[in-house]
Amino acid sequence: MSNVTVQSLATTSRGAGAELLSRPRLGDQAAFGDVLARVKSDQQTPEQKARKAAEELISTALIGPVFKGLRESNNAAEPFKPNAAERSFGQMLDTTLAQRMVSSAHWGLVDSVAQKLLRKAEPEGATPEKAPGAGAKALESGERSISGATE
Description:
By secondary structure, this protein is an all-alpha fold.
């Protein structure tokens, strides 16, 4: 019985540091994941790149300012007012929440902006409307347009 006690004390005295070192470092894994994501982003299709750019635009230009306005209009009583850390890092939180919100939901506005970005990136003579079978592709993707309407 005393042998077990001595052994458990020995592992607990040195085990705290060893346990921390043996745990996987989530920060390192996330950084490595970011590097891999950058490599994968180079392999994205133009549609995926346009969607990503549209998500960033919508989150930065539309959703971010709404969050900023809500944060600045906080009229809470003294014990509930934002502290210095909340004021310092509030913008980072707003940016992260806006990006997550836009990327997690299917927003028609993001789809529309992505389609317009793709049209702008295409060469002048190769518009999808003039390509054979473009109408069928538009119907399959759920895109609706009125003939003769200008953008």
